[in-house]
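Example 166.
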Amino acid sequence: MKTAVYPGSFDPITNGHVDIITRGLKIFDKIIVLIAHNPEKKSLFPVEERMEMIREVIKEHEKDHQRVKVDYAPGLLVDYVRNSGANVILKGLRAVSDFEYEFQMTLINRRLNRDIETVFLMTGFRWFFISSSIVKEAASLGGSVKGMVPDIVYQRLQQKYGFSAS
Ligand code: COA
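Predicted structure in complex with coenzyme A:
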């Protein structure tokens, strides 16, 4: 049984993330979507709400939703991966600008645990320009982010920022 851990801040989950999960399920038997701690970021949604949104989205979008688990870990990613019995980290790669950071992360993770490999899927071109921050910025200024995020997330952003549905 091949299990991959897909880590991120998921603040909030976007359609780009959903695309990676869907395609990852063609390769792995099980995917653990892990909300991990990025000390560089201040979050909009509390961890519990992010987990709840991911669970709802996966249940709605994935006929294979039983093969997806959602979890949270405040510590080192490689420790979580080892303790969960997985040995693969799954990540999406969008633009060249992602590469340097992801390369550094992959190398430090490998230095910390040589048994864990990182596998990258290229982000679908429809989601190339999307990030959680850009979605939050657009929503906060009243821009429509419909189609960039799952409907459940759209509704939560609407509640947070009070924009009208369009
Ligand atoms: N589609 C759309 N957007 C995507 C995407 C995709 N396929 N893949 C990534 N993104 C977006 C994310 O939403 C994120 O947007 P944001 O910066 O606006 O929040 C951005 O691209 C960067 O994603 P990522 O590189 O995955 O960063 P992250 O903050 O989501 O996750 C952690 C980083 C949590 C995985 C990392 O900090 C970590 O591993 N923390 C645990 C501690 C640790 O072990 N650190 C490493 C060793 S010191």
